[in-house]
Design a protein that fits this description.
By secondary structure, the protein is α/β, with parallel strands linked by helices. Helix content is 26%, strand content 21%. It has a nine-stranded mixed β-sheet with strand order 6-5-4-7-8-9-10-11-12, covered by helices on one side. Strands 1-3-2 form a three-stranded mixed β-sheet, covered by helices on one side.
């Protein structure tokens, strides 16, 4: 039996060995020359960006370290107790360098640590100027411990520095002790506020009268001395309750004015420790006579010696 030979297809068969397959789109090895040109362009932009960054960094270094913006002038405003040189020294601006290197927050913190400085503001003005604005504490009184050296005190009761004699401020004498240190608490702020308000309100409370000074002893007893020479004894002022009792005592001081003349040079003091029973003493008043013991009858035993009463010191 003979098999019939199969006829070959009329469609020509492709020669896979001689022909190249079309490239797969998206593969790196299939990219053409235009894509490579794009990569070169991007690479060039990156190089230019790097060069620009280096130039900016160099410009910044030149601004910080170069002489064009060195601080040549420091202006200080608002300082009266401290002079220009003291403010510059406390702020650390003797050699500030570039105006861009000035740290305003650090300078404010340094100045706030000074005794006289309440607050400070610092600003830089191109090309070479620093402005320092200072707000100082204002003294409201002179305080001295016993007969020690007087010191300015702020409204917070903090010692600011030695005060000259006769500066016109309220004089407050505290208990005997060491002199206050500048920057430290010299006296209670509440008591100071009460005394300052009392000084300012005295001409209204008692027309024609002014406060010369206050004194507080080691027991906390408060005494006011008027410019006319008389004194007012208020008693202890150590607790909030005792502070609040000053209003009633001032009322008693005013009510007594209907019975005595505060302009009388013979007036020594007015005791208002008990507001409901104010006591007045005149300099011309004679002390009460000492009673003379009557003679003992004959044969009577001798009278016992008087006992000595020891008064405990105040606390």
């Amino acid at each position: 039996m003979k098999f019939r030979r199969r006829r070959s297809s009329r469609i020509p068969r492709p020669d896979w060995r001689s022909e190249k397959a079309p490239p797969v789109i998206g593969s790196d090895w299939s990219r053409k020359e235009p894509g490579r040109e794009v990569d070169r362009g991007r690479r060039s932009l990156r190089v230019l960006a790097g060069i620009a960054a280096l130039l900016e960094l160099g410009l910044l270094v030149w601004l910080l370290a170069g002489p064009a913006f060195d601080v040549r002038r420091v202006d200080v405003t608002g300082a009266h107790r401290l002079d220009h040189a003291q403010v510059v020294a406390v702020a650390g601006l003797e050699r500030p360098g570039s105006v861009f290197a000035v740290d305003a927050a650090t300078i404010r913190r340094r100045l706030s640590g000074a005794t006289w400085v309440r607050s400070a503001a610092v600003s830089a003005q191109l090309p070479d100027r620093i402005v320092v604005q200072v707000d100082e504490w204002q003294p409201v009184a002179d305080y001295h411990a016993g007969k020690g050296k007087p010191y300015f005190v702020s409204d917070q009761g903090v010692a600011l520095g030695p005060s000259p004699p006769s500066d016109g401020l309220l004089d407050i004498q505290g208990p005997t002790g060491p002199d206050p240190k500048p920057g430290r608490q010299a006296m209670d702020a509440r008591l100071l506020a009460a005394l300052v308000n009392l000084q300012r309100g005295m001409p209204i409370l008692l027309p024609g009268q002014e406060v010369q000074s206050f004194s507080v002893d080691s027991c906390g007893n408060l005494t006011m001395t008027a410019r006319k020479g008389w004194q007012a004894q208020f008693g202890r002022v150590l607790t909030p309750e005792e502070y609040s009792s000053l209003d009633a005592k001032l009322g008693a001081l005013r009510s007594v004015s209907t019975k005595i003349d505060y302009n009388n040079p013979d007036l020594e003091y007015v005791n208002v420790m008990n507001p409901s029973a104010a006591a007045v003493k005149l300099k011309s008043a004679k002390p009460a006579p000492t009673p003379t013991p009557s003679p003992l009858p004959k044969g009577a035993p001798p009278a016992p010696s008087p006992s000595i009463q020891v008064v405990a010191p105040c606390r």
